[in-house]
Design goal:
By secondary structure, the chain is an alpha/beta fold. The protein has ten helices and eight strands. The longest helix is centred in the C-terminal third of the chain and has 33 residues. The two termini are about 20 Å apart.
């Protein structure tokens, strides 16, 4: 399958994981909302199968054979949403002038994708971010809403300037997308990189839809992993805090030593067994926390130094042609 390379190619990158029931509906909804832009853009859909264990890839592959604007990439295993996103953007850059990233579960409304295209067509903007409206949304899990709110507050507290409630639903020029993927972080965190890219950016708000089918693929474990990756890949403040905390603990220890010596000199029996045990547990707990934070950063440096590929493509339905 060959791509016709021409100006104003718009590619929509859609990471998928076990989305066999949503792929066709997503294509239908995008066609319905973006059909009016066919005079301005040549639109492609690039589905990235992130190691699905259902027949998501078979559906994508079949649609690719039936349509000249639908393409697919199949990763060799489940690398995670952010890496699937990276794989889609990197491959879309080979033939795109604009790249729109969104989830394939239809929680990102296709009508908002249409608004993004209108803005990009009428204004000189490099990045258009979609931000979930602040009001409570019944289509989003309450725990996820609360945890997300405090996650962004924590990021702001440690000096990371990421817009709250902005995920990976955005439209970018090829220039901005190329700058995004030029970051070679092993643990790719798109929204953290976008926040410090610069370029002319604009934000529009949206209300998330209810999932068309199935359940969220972001388990608590994956959410915690993403949060940890976001923190450690965008800020070294936790390391600095451990240094400050270690100084405070050292001073506390000096005071405790002086107090213990003074008690021994005065031949006084120390009755505070409970307070002593609490102090020991507290100090050991803090020290283990410091070691854990240090270990996380050291581990990241170790994994980065190995130089392993961030993803492996098992199969794809794209045939590139040299741009003339």
């Amino acid at each position: 399958m060959n791509l016709s390379i021409k100006k104003n190619n718009l590619t929509i990158v859609l990471p998928c994981y076990n989305e066999k029931d949503t792929v066709l509906k997503t294509i239908f909804e995008l066609n319905k909302n973006l059909n009016s832009f066919l005079d301005d853009y040549k639109i492609f859909y690039l589905f990235v199968d992130d190691g699905s264990i259902d027949n998501t890839w078979e559906i994508i592959s079949r649609q690719s054979k039936l349509s000249d604007f639908i393409y697919g990439i199949r990763l060799s295993t489940n690398f995670g949403h952010q890496i699937a996103l990276l794989a889609g953007i990197e491959n879309a850059l080979k033939f795109s002038d604009y790249i729109l990233t969104m989830d394939a579960d239809l929680q990102h409304p296709p009508e908002i994708a249409r608004r993004m295209c209108e803005l990009m067509r009428n204004e000189e903007i490099d990045i258009i971010n979609a931000q979930q409206a602040l009001i409570h949304n019944n289509n989003i899990n309450l725990f996820k809403q609360i945890s997300s709110r405090y996650f962004y507050k924590f990021l702001k507290l440690i000096g990371v300037k990421i817009q709250p409630r902005v995920g990976d639903f955005r439209l970018m020029s090829a220039k901005a997308a190329a700058a995004l993927v030029s970051h070679h972080d092993l643990e790719f965190f798109a929204r953290g990189i976008i926040a410090r890219l610069g370029f002319k950016q604009k934000t529009i708000q949206y209300y998330a839809n209810k999932r068309f089918s199935g359940e969220s693929k972001y388990s608590l474990r994956k959410m915690l992993k993403l949060a940890l990756s976001g923190i450690t890949s965008t800020s070294i403040l936790p390391l600095r805090l451990t240094f400050i905390l270690s100084i405070i603990l050292f001073l506390i220890c000096i005071i405790m030593v002086i107090a213990a010596i003074a008690t021994w000199i005065n031949n006084q029996v120390v009755p505070g067994w409970t307070s002593l045990i609490i102090s020991i547990y507290f100090l050991f707990g803090i020290n283990f926390m410091i070691i854990g934070i240090l270990g996380e950063y050291i581990g990241k440096n170790y994994r980065q130094s190995l130089g392993r590929p961030r993803y492996i493509i098992q199969d794809n339905t794209i045939s590139y042609r040299e741009i003339k």
